[in-house]
Amino acid sequence: MLNFTIRRLVLAVPTLLFISLVIFLLLELAPGDPMAQVPLTVPPEVKEKMREALGLGQPMHIRFWKWIVQFFWIEPQVLVDHMFGTTFSEGDLRVISWQTRSPVMDIVVQRIPQTLWVVGTAYVVAILIALPIGIYSAYRQYSWFDQMGTFVSMVGFSVPPFFSGVLVIVIFSVQLGWFPSIYDTTHVVNSWDSFVVQLKQMIMPVMVLALQITAQLSRFMRASMLDNLNQDYVRTARAKGLSEYTVVMVHVLRNSMIPVVTVIALGIPAIFGGAIITEQVFKVNGIGQLLIGAIQANDLPMVQTLTFIFAVLIVLFNLIADVLYGILDPRIRYD
Amino acid sequence: MTDTDKSDTLVPDEGLAPASTALPTAGVMDDLATPPRSQWRDVWDQFKTHKGAMLGAILFIFIVASVYLGPYLWTIDPTQIDIRSRNQGPSFAHPFGTDQLGRDIMARMMAGGQTSVSVGITAMLLALFLGSLIGVVAGFFKRLDGPLMRLTDLFLALPLLPLLLVMMLLFREPLSAAFGLERGIFILIVCAIGITSWMPTARIVRGDVLAIKEREFVLAARSIGTSNTQIITRHILPNVLSPIMVSATLGIATAIITESALSFLGLGFPPDFPTWGRLLFDGVDYLQQYPERVFWPGLAISLTVLSVNYLGDGLRDALDPRIRGR
Q1: Phi/psi of residue A102, each to 5°?
Q2: Which tens digits make up the pLDDT trace of B20-49?
């Protein structure tokens, strides 16, 4: 297992390099000039200087190498410095945003808590809702509960977040006035009342995100339970005279959870991607909104870094899912 | 690519006895009493029993028909500005009301639907073509399997929505300069969605091709000297048609949602060119006064996707011979 994990880790390196190359080349080969917004009255030699100041003077492969070094070598050093008060990264150039002229990672670090808070809560809520629904609809297959579950998850698949989000805003904040339509990230929780306010503003984005995740997870849980419920070991367990609760919740559930756990792990990076739209609808100033803003402002270093962070997350969680699968299910040891 | 590999892969089979039986293995258990039935008749019969799928099919056909044929009956120009009758509620003259420039929302919904549905279908066809091609080639030619599947894995590891957004940002202007504004963006969106959504199809098709390749009828075909191209087109492709069809329906759904998401984020079609996502995006500004403007396009997107999903669900059951006839 360790062998397998190490092999996968090693394999992740070329994958990440390839992805970073794709992202870099996509931005590089794309037509479009970062100097396009500069007024025409600026003389060409000044423009050339500005271009160099943005780091655009050198050939492509050198810039790619610089970016890789900055991302994988200097930024971790900055993190270490920040945590332990050391000075490894002093004087090194970091990835600088064209918008704010400050290091990209600093801005990302400012934005991550909001995203994690909203998206993470949504994911936990979705898991807590989806698992019982999946278990019960598999146990009572084709009952009205199961049919309802199928329909609701189909709706969850089909209604895009930019519609469900706007819909709940119309209903709950415009018509009923229960919840605020904008997520206020400057809100500080320090008393019961402010906690209630925080809870109120989180309900809508969290529920919109959770609806989608629940739809997928509950279907998956149901299918996995159904696979196991007809197995021989279930009949054996019943024949031994175990209670129905023990049979379903211990024997069947533990086996059915194996693929579901890996799907949960695989879903985490996708949630970061999906949150782009939800963050936009509810004006949560998280990573997704940062990306949209950077794209609209033509801030290439920011876009590059953010896209690459998403890619790293995907590769990382794929790896975790694979390893988890091997750990949880001794039948699938890869070596 | 297929032609160069043909000779290589045929070599090991050269020594096989040509007399292997060419019995049809695609299990036909014909009861002699019943008249012969075609496969598609069986599929249709199974499909009819799935109520959700039938409803989905009817709804989808209805939506497509009303979007494409509707403008012949409802002849108001979607771009006609009538500033005097702006922001009207539903009436006989304008069943869905009018927008902030007095344009008829029903006509705009139809025009927007045409774009959304055609983007969905074209992008699906492109993704399907790429996916089936890569899947069949990877499954059939052992030597290309590894590289092509690594490529698929790499594509699956790419963050798709951010990349789509970046592509939209970067290639918008050159393409609309080359092909005209609307057609350029249409091509861009279709290509962007197509090349970022072929991976699931490729994986499913490859898996099926790997299994079918080892079946006796392929061996029989090879033993009588059928070329690789013909084995693929005559024996393999018809047998992987069902997973391709199922992923086609799901592909339409994801393509429509992706296009709307791009339009919603302001990176899709230009403002005066309506699509459902764009109409929804425009409606958000008037959310408090006229919530129905958000509601109609959103409902259209959701209903289309829902109907297509149910359609795919029914197709999956109908095309699976293990479920069919039960």
Answers
A1: -120, 160
A2: 444 444 444 555 566 777 778 887 887 777
